[in-house]
From TrEMBL:
Protein name as catalogued: 4-hydroxy-2-oxoglutarate aldolase, mitochondrial
Keyword Metal-binding: no
Keyword flag Lyase: yes
Reaction(s) catalysed (UniProt annotation): (4S)-4-hydroxy-2-oxoglutarate = glyoxylate + pyruvate; (4R)-4-hydroxy-2-oxoglutarate = glyoxylate + pyruvate
SMART domains: DHDPS (SM01130)
This protein's GO CC annotations: mitochondrion
Encoding gene (name): HOGA1
Biological source species: Physeter macrocephalus (Sperm whale)
Family label: Belongs to the DapA family.
């Protein structure tokens, strides 16, 4: 059951969430909050004893804040939220909010398996500074998670959330794609502002944009690997793990797309595909205790909490070389080398 204090927060916050100005972002009369832009999904650093390393977290944020990101995503897949306690999840959000300038949006992953737990986590995250809640699809009983069940879940969460809600579909991790018909229905909710779609199906992203075009609903690509294609079909930004490593390049790709410089954007997108793929591969090995590879690249000390078992590690010299060339001169030397 939701406790009295939580229900009080829900009642007090709901009117703020449904007003035309939410969390201090004026978005126009009757319009939803603007979430367009690039967001790096922040990692959760751990110490050698598997405790959350808040010092390294703040150090990473200070480095990332030098780039023109719209904001940051905390407690997404990249932040390993399933392996944190509830109190750790809230403390991470609180620390990130304290470290960020107020003009940077903080999207916090508040999804849990039950609707009640998701509402409680969302309310609590709002209390510690989240500007919007990114809610992943519940998936343990994924065979029963049809459109009707998901619409019911998200509607209840959005009804009771004191901050705007962003839908989060990541089938690689959940085994579940949020159905397009459910997204279309949920886009009409006044407190649901958009979706982060990490499936990589650009046709689906374009269809969502098309079918929600009469709603004030925004689509964020879930990877730098298909960022250009997503912009081309109407997405407004991206939550890109590669931005943790190549923030300047991902923001440059955004700028090229927004200014219609499609030929240059295509060239840069091509250069980012291999580093993005390598980053995905290295991330899996990082979560198996292979943090020594990423430490010089990201300036972060990582030790994943539950994946400390031996694993083979692929060659990474090409990854380092690509990063060196990209950081050195925007990719011209890489292009010549290829």
């Amino acid at each position: 059951m939701l406790g009295p204090r939580v229900w009080s927060s829900v009642r007090q916050g709901l009117s703020r969430a449904l007003s035309s100005t939410v969390g201090g972002w004026a978005s126009g009369e009757g319009r939803k909050v603007d979430i367009s832009g690039i967001y790096p999904p922040v990692t959760t650093p751990f110490t050698a004893t598997a405790e959350v390393d808040y010092g390294k977290l703040e150090e990473n944020l200070h480095k990332l804040s030098t780039f023109p990101f719209r904001g940051f995503v905390v407690q997404g897949s990249n932040g390993e939220f399933p392996f944190l306690t509830s109190s750790e999840r809230l403390e991470v959000v609180s620390r990130v909010r304290q470290a960020l300038p107020r003009d940077k949006l903080l999207l916090a992953g508040s999804g849990c398996e039950s609707t009640q737990a998701t509402v409680e986590m969302t309310v609590s995250m709002a209390q510690v500074g989240a500007d919007a809640a990114m809610v992943v699809t519940p998936c343990y009983y994924h065979g029963r998670m049809n459109s009707a069940a998901l619409i019911h879940h998200y509607t209840k969460v959005a009804d009771l959330s004191p901050i705007p809600v962003v839908l989060y579909s990541v089938p690689a991790n959940t085994g579940l794609d949020l159905p397009v018909d459910a997204v279309v229905t949920l886009s009409k909710h006044p407190n649901i502002v958009g979706i982060k779609d990490s499936g990589g199906d650009v046709t689906r992203i374009g269809l969502i944009v098309h079918k929600t075009r009469r709603q004030d609903f925004q689509v964020l690509a879930g990877s730098a690997g298909f960022l250009l294609a997503s912009y081309a079909v109407g997405a407004v930004g991206g939550v890109c793990a590669l931005a943790n490593v190549l923030g300047a390049q991902v923001c440059q790709l955004e700028r090229l797309c927004l200014t219609g410089q499609w030929e240059d954007a295509q060239k840069l997108q091509h250069r980012l595909i291999e580093p993005n793929t390598a980053r995905s591969t290295l991330s899996q090995h990082l979560k198996r205790g292979k943090s020594e590879i990423f430490r010089p690249l990201c300036g972060r000390k990582l030790s994943s909490r539950y994946f400390l078992f031996p694993s083979s590690f692929p060659p990474y010299s090409g990854f380092r070389e690509m990063l060196r060339l990209l950081e050195h001169d925007g990719g011209q030397a890489w292009e010549e080398a290829c």
